[in-house]
Amino acid sequence: MSVTDWNRSGDWFLEQFGVLIQRMKESRQERRAVVEKYEQEISAREEAVRHKTDSVNKKLNKMKQNGLKVVTDGDD
C-alpha cells in the first residue's frame, strides 16, 4: 500500500469514527430528553396525587370532627 493510500485509509477511518461518535452523542442526548420528559410527567402525577390525598385527608378529618361533635352533643 502506498503512503497516499495509507493516508486516505487513515482519513476514512477517522471520518467513520467521527460519524460514529456523533451518532452516539445524539443518541445519548435523545435518551436524556426522553428521561427528562418522563421524570417531569412522574413529578406532575406525584404532585397531583399528593394534592388529592391532602384534600381527602382534610375532608376525612372534618368528618371525624363533625362526628365527634354529634356524639359529644348527644351526651349532654
TrEMBL record:
It holds the Pfam family ECM11. InterPro entries: Ecm11_C, RNA_pol_I-specific_init_factor. Residues 1-70 form the Extracellular mutant protein 11 C-terminal domain. GO terms for biological process: nucleolar large rRNA transcription by RNA polymerase I. GO terms for molecular function: RNA polymerase I core promoter sequence-specific DNA binding; TBP-class protein binding. GO terms for cellular component: RNA polymerase I core factor complex. PANTHER family: RNA POLYMERASE I-SPECIFIC TRANSCRIPTION INITIATION FACTOR RRN11. This is Extracellular mutant protein 11 C-terminal domain-containing protein.
